[in-house]
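Deliverable D4.2, example record:
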Amino acid sequence: MPEVYVAAGSNVDPEKHLGLASAELGRYFPGVRFSPWYRNRAAGFTGADFINFVAGFPTDLPLEAVLARLHAIEGLCGRAREAPRWAPRTMDLDILLYGDRVADTPALRLPRPDLLTRAYMLGPLADLAPALVHPTAHLTIEALWRRFDRAAHPLVPVPASPAGGGA
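Output generated by the structure prediction step:
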């Protein structure tokens, strides 16, 4: 059964939307675990800070079914699928890893390429699964995080969050 890791982020009423997304992830994916929550600057556009976390869970669902459930959660949080890519978000759920699957299609690339360049993805994943080996970089997530330029991409821990994450 593959272990799936999903990045969650919001900069529109983030505590509310991340709390709702966390509850829905727990409903859809029993056994889900959450990283601490972190605040970070918006990337790719000027906007309010985001709050992000990573969730991990085992599933026997096919990738397409996991994506459909994540899109349903985004919709429940008020995200329109046709919203601009680099803009404020009520909810953004991105699959980082789906087991050791590697894919490169117009619809989905796995592992998610920006996992290795975005602190708000790699840092929380290192909290959640430090010993996990990245399927294409062939290093542990902890080793990748140690090499990361954290000073250029600061993450600020968010005190105890509704998801069970937080500092």
